[in-house]
Specification:
- The chain is an alpha/beta fold and 360 residues long.
- It has ten helices and 13 strands.
- Strand 9 and strand 10 form a beta hairpin.
- Helix 4 (123-139) runs parallel beside helix 5, helix 7 crosses helix 9 (304-317) and helix 9 packs parallel to helix 10.
Length: 360
């Protein structure tokens, strides 16, 4: 593996100029627990080998800033974090797997549920995030086994007086971080996710509208080697059925396809392709950084495997780079026993769906 993956004319290319499609599975690395030391039992060398055999060429590798620095000692980076990342890079390379390094839990807090607003209200957190990315970029500037730097997962910013000001928080941070990375590293692709939501800090209410700016919450940054990211879990009532953290879905089960309720491949394709217009209009590649079905969707023939096959077919036909969430987690994992133990419970319908789709 001697070449870097690059964004070019709406597609990804390898060092020989051949088209490259990211086919990924996420390693969660227990980031939600905000660990201070690397979770070395989350996956092993066998995990990389297995993903290669299934047909994957990438891992979206979730990072937590706490693995590299503590709030008590900002900008002082831990050698244990680098050693862990080094091991994963070398092991991934051995099995022809490229890592998408994703800051899933940045300084200021986990974003997805709207509880990480300190990233947006405390400028020091933004400086620390940019500095950490710059250090990562400098250390690994000559490492082609890293496919991309995925700056922040599912950003949820603080609401400002206008929509433009609200969006500008993430756009400016992404741009500043990209500029800083490029001072030390011109090799690696950068990934910028669309804005996930914004939160009113006085009321605590978040706006989850996925098309607030008329561009599906995407925006461009000033950099030629960028891929733009979105996530899909549609229809939510199916992919998150009986999810205990979704009050409206508890005890609710559904099947796919469900023609009577319009939940079929045509519906799913619209969910994916509504993001494609931004890529086509701007001639930039897209990355489906997360998609998946909760374990209940694979039980009693509810159709989780059919949903996966349809989703993969849509991605491959439309040249959408993709990453499944996730390898190792109780709810969505390929292995369903939590993110801190070596897997021993395989979701066989999910495994077989990937094996079939990725070996066509």
């Amino acid at each position: 593996m001697q070449d870097f993956i690059r964004s070019e004319n709406g597609l990804l290319k390898d060092g020989s100029g051949n088209d490259f499609l990211i086919k990924g599975m996420a390693f969660g690395n227990n980031v939600w627990a905000n660990p201070a030391i690397p979770p070395k039992t989350h996956h092993t060398e066998e995990s990389y080998k297995e993903l290669n055999e299934i047909g994957f060429n990438s891992v979206r590798f979730y990072l937590n800033y706490g693995l590299f620095e503590s709030d008590d000692a900002p900008y002082k980076y831990k050698e244990t974090g680098w050693e862990w990342l080094d091991w994963n890079i070398q092991t991934a390379k051995k099995y022809n797997i490229r890592l998408v390094l994703n800051m899933h839990y940045p300084q200021g807090g986990f974003q997805s549920n709207g509880n990480g607003t300190a990233l947006w209200t405390d400028g020091e957190n933004q400086k620390r995030l940019t500095a950490l990315w710059t250090e990562i970029a400098k250390r690994y500037k000559d490492e082609p086994a890293i496919a991309a730097f995925d700056l922040v997962n599912e950003p949820v910013v603080a609401e400002k007086a206008t929509l433009e000001e609200t969006f500008a928080q993430w756009q400016n941070l992404a741009q500043d971080t990209a500029y800083s990375i490029r001072k030390v590293n011109t090799n690696h692709m950068i990934m910028v996710e669309r804005l996930n939501a914004y939160k009113n800090l006085e009321t605590g209410v978040s706006n989850w509208d996925n098309n607030m700016n008329g561009n599906m919450n995407f925006f461009l940054i000033d950099d030629k080697n960028v891929t733009y990211e979105f996530h899909v879990y549609d229809p939510f009532v199916f992919t998150h059925q009986n999810a205990n953290w979704v009050e409206s879905n508890r005890g609710v089960f559904s099947v796919y396809p469900d023609e009577a309720n319009g939940m079929n491949k045509e519906y799913l394709e619209k969910s994916f392709t509504k993001y494609l217009q931004f890529g086509r209009d701007n001639n930039v590649p897209l990355y489906l950084g997360e998609f998946g079905v909760i374990v209940y969707g694979f039980q009693e023939d509810r159709g989780g495997d059919r949903w996966i096959k349809d989703a993969l077919d849509i991605c491959i036909r439309h040249n959408i780079n993709f990453n499944y969430h996730t390898y190792h987690e109780t709810a969505f994992g390929l292995y369903m026993n939590g993110a801190h133990e070596y897997p021993d419970k395989l979701n066989k319908p999910l495994y077989n769906a990937f094996k079939e789709a990725l070996h066509k």
